[in-house]
Amino acid sequence: MSAARRSASRPRKESGARAPKAGAPGPRPPRDTPLDPLPVAPRAGPLIEPPVLAPLPSAAAALAMRPETIEAAYEAWDALREERAVARSALGAERARLEEQGALLLGAVKAAAAPPNAPGSAALVKTSELERLAEDAHRSWEVSRAALEGRACEAEAGFAAALAEVTAEVVRRVRAQAALAPPRAGLMVRILPNERRILHLRRPSPDEAVLLLQAMSGRAPTRYGFLFDDSTDDALLAPPTLYPDEGVTRPRPRPAELMAELGPRATFWPVKGMLFLALPGLTMRWLSRGAVLEAEVADGEGFRNLLTRDEAEQITGALLSLKLAGALELELVRG
Question: What is the pTM of this model?
Answer without folding.
Answer: 0.75
